[in-house]
Amino acid sequence: MLKPPPLKDDCFALPPGVDWIPVDQVFQYLQNALTPRALHDERPVQQALGLFLAQEIISERSSPPHRNSAIDGYAFDGRASSSHGIIRLKLLEGRSAAGHAFVGYVPQGTAIRILTGAVVPEGTDTVVLQEDVETDGHELVFHGPLKPGKNTREAGEDIKVGQSLFEAGHRVSPADLATLTSVGVSDVSVFRPLRVGVMSTGDEICEGGEIPAEGQIFDANRPMLLGQLRQKGYEAIDLGKAPDDPQKVSETLNRGAELCDAILTTGGASAGDEDHLASLLRDKGSLEMWRIAVKPGRPMALGLWSGVPVFGLPGNPVAALVCTLVFVLPSLRLMGGGGWHTPNGYMLPAHFTKKKKPGRREYLRARVREGGVEVFPSEGSGRVTGLSWAEGLVEIQDHAYDIAQGDLVKFIPYEQF
User: Fold this and answer.
1) How sure is the predictor about 278, in pLDDT bands with cuts at 50, 70 and 90?
2) In 168-216, which ranges are E strands?
């Protein structure tokens, strides 16, 4: 007589003695197992935008390189303006302008015309604003006191010779281009963009523009993941789709291993009859782990194929994107030379209620409205519209929670991942 097991109705239930792998443990494994894979080369600084530096950059020049004026006015020895009352100075001929410094010495008791950004002439250390001065071309007067050094910028006030500007692994931003070029940096050593392939698996998916057969759905995952990679500055390589055939999946992985530094796949990472990716990684490659204690996500394969890291993502779009944000992007950043990145979150009042069981880390699609966080009404992993509706994720830690309206929760904007 067949005897059914007790009804659990829990897709997260595991056999006795088998536990889910905590998220933090997965983070630690990835940081220990992965190393930079991208090549690096020397490039003009203008071509470094968005790339990771391969070497620390030390400034060989000060900024500003000399003491200069912060305003248009008159430069003089500041000791003459330390007293109260009217200050009278003799006006010398000539001026100091940006790119055309005054040549000569300015004696005490005299002043000279100076423009913004110009070198402060020898003998002077202070500049009085032109609107505060009355002059007849031979003498100028103004009210004191004026603090010595006023309205000037010291040499090296911003950057000093020998100062570390950026560590290796820093991603170059538009503002960084200004910092680098301000001290004459013309070329930098940077990691090349990581090449990341994306493949879909499953007989049930078809491409946009095709006529779906009975039971087929359009592939939403691959366009989403390719777009995510391009947005982050990686060279995204479309490996297409592979049917539920171990040979075809293996051939696509082989092609990806030749072209890519890493491969993302969707579907086939669980333990079903047609989930071939995990079994292939186990039998022919190197399957390191799966069954991660995360929602959405859980069936995620992590392994190597011909030495190339493979991230086997869930087939449901929401789970695929969440796992990409949480696990894949920091891994790719590390592999691309940028080091591991933990996203910044913000504690904001909850505009929702939720009871959560212990054991899994949960990520809810969320957005900020009226000073608080609201979440998408459905937690279903197939509700792809929730990804567009959301602006980020609410992260709920592993233990049990009973979140009430107004409780502080951690919101992580998409761009922080």
Assistant:
1) confident
2) 187-191, 195-201, 205-206
Q: Which of 104, 84, 85 is nearest to 95 (CA)?
A: 104
What contacts 249, CB < 8 A, 6 or more positions away? Answer: 201, 242, 268, 276, 277, 280
- The helix (run of H) or strand (run of E) holding residue 288 is strand 286-289
For 328-341, the pLDDT digits (tens) are 999 999 999 999 99
Q: Top-level CATH class of 23-38+193-335?
A: alpha beta
> Using 50, 70 and 90 to split pLDDT, how confident is the model at 255?
very high
71-83 pLDDT, tens digit per residue, is: 999 999 999 998 9
Beta bridge partners of 266: 200, 313
Bond into 64 cis (ω within 30)? yes
CATH of the structural domain 68-153, one choice from 2.40.50.140, 2.60.40.10, 3.40.50.1580, 2.170.190.11: 2.170.190.11
Tell whether domain 42-59+163-191 is in CATH 3.90.105.10.
yes
